[in-house]
Amino acid sequence: MILSRPLIELRCVLACLVLMMGPAAAQKSADGQSLDQAANDPTASLMSVQIQNIYAGAYHNLDDENANTVLLRAALPFELGGMKNIARGTLPIITNSPSGKSGVGDLVLFDLIVFDRSWGRWGLGPVMLFPAASNDALGAEKWAIGPAIGFVAQSKKLLWGLFNQNLFSFAGNGDRNDVDVSILQPIVNYSLPNKWSVGTSEMNITYDWQQNDWTTLPLGLKLSKLHRFGKLPVQFSGSYEYNFQDDYVAPEWVVNFTVKFLFPVGRS
């Protein structure tokens, strides 16, 4: 009974937020895009909360291993000095890993300054890795920072672009390997009838500057569906990826399922 009242109050707060956000979500799209397209666009002025379950069914260079991670991600658009920004935080919760450990992983935050163009948008900003892991086997034990840059071009049905994030460690446990990576994420998404869409999965093609090699080369496909629960739009998506780089210890294939709650922000 001691915990019941705070939980009820938390539910009431969340319900009020949904009700307040709901009318805006029903009436507006983000930056003039259709909402189902904007949900797949990392540059859209779209507040969102995402829960993603990632299951790795096999590993390269490890026998009979699998893993599962629940990824929590929130995006918040805002203006600063007359410039459009999108802040995003990603926190992994590892429920199963080859190390046998479970818990919270490292936190990644980035702020993208977005510039509108007739063909779409481009953006740049900082990205930072915080050593928030609850166990040293689940994180890098390093602080890292670097630039992020990318663009997204759009038409009525097709969305395509490319994002690049870079992380270079500057502090942390000296006994652990440095984090010096560049990540490329191609974006291709095509809108289908009835709020369905198909495109590439969240492929993180990774170059490790310590190894001087591409350490992951994934290729994947994603299918998404936008649905409204009353006034609240929610995107459901599922994807499959296969990693063609087999020289390093990394997931061989991954299946994930994502639920993304959307709160569009209209133009000011």
Task: Describe the model.
The chain is mostly beta strands and 268 residues long. The chain has a single domain (4-264), classed as monomeric porin ompg (Porin, Beta Barrel). It has 2 helices and 15 strands. Strands 1-2-3-5-6-7-8-9-10-13-14-15 form a 12-stranded antiparallel barrel. The chain is globular and about 50 Å long.
List keywords for this structure.
mainly beta; Porin; 15 strands; 268 residues
List the SSEs and their pairings.
Layout: H1 4-27, H2 35-38, E1 46-60, E2 67-80, E3 83-96, E4 103-104, E5 107-117, E6 120-130, E7 142-154, E8 158-172, E9 180-191, E10 196-200, E11 205-208, E12 213-216, E13 218-229, E14 232-243, E15 250-264
Antiparallel strand pairs: 1-2, 1-15, 2-3, 3-4, 3-5, 5-6, 6-7, 7-8, 8-9, 9-10, 9-11, 10-13, 11-12, 13-14, 14-15
Strand residues, percent: over 45%
Helix content: 10-25%
CATH superfamily: monomeric porin ompg
If strands are numbered along the chain, what order do they take across the biggest sheet? 1-2-3-5-6-7-8-9-10-13-14-15
The global form is globular
How many β-strands, per DSSP?
15
Structural class: mainly beta
Radius of gyration: 19 Å
Question: If you average the pLDDT, what whole number results?
Answer: 87
Low-confidence stretches: 1-30
Task: Classify the fold: give the CATH topology.
Answer: Porin
Instruction: Report the top-level CATH class.
Output: Mainly Beta
Order of helices and strands: HHEEEEEEEEEEEEEEE
Specify the CATH architecture: Beta Barrel
* Total DSSP helices: 2
From the N-terminal CA to the C-terminal CA, the straight-line distance is 45 Å
Which sheet architecture does the biggest sheet show? 12 strands, antiparallel, barrel
Total domains = 1
